[in-house]
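Hey, I was hoping to borrow your eyes for a little while. I've been puzzling over a protein and I'd love to understand its fold better. The fold is given in discrete form, as structure tokens running alongside the sequence. I'd be grateful if you could look everything over and explain what you see. No rush at all, and the record is pasted right below.
>
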Amino acid sequence: MSIGTLLFIAQRAFEEEIVTALHDAGFNFTIAQGRLAARIGEQGSRLTELANAAGIAKQSAAYLLRQLEEIGLVARQHDPRDARAQLVVLTEYGRKAQLAARDIEARIERRWQDLLSPAAFKELKQHLGTLRELVDRHAESPERQLG
């Protein structure tokens, strides 16, 4: 089996577990909506930034954002850096969902660490971090990572 397939299987399991647990906690949205919402920066993000980070067309991102607005996870605000632009921000409900997702992610990581061993999990995470630095054309700029 290729490394790409193995990474996809692990990512799919991780993502499905997060969405299932969030649904159980009362946050109802699709995996596609969650993928986009997960990329919203703390100070908000522009539609084009989100589309690029998610690797999807701007039109697809706009469609998903409208759905996220309808369920109350996000809102649009004027961008203070550019009067012509808008920022997508998480609502209070969206921030609660994001915090819940981070807790679920931590639980999954702890369980996977137990499955592999703490040392093997740490090494895997380090190697994947290095690989991301080398190949991720959608990585956030250092400026956005601080925000």
Summary: The chain has one domain: 3-146. Confidence is low (pLDDT under 50) at residues 141-147. The chain has seven helices and two strands. The CA atoms of residues 75 and 89 lie 5 Å apart.
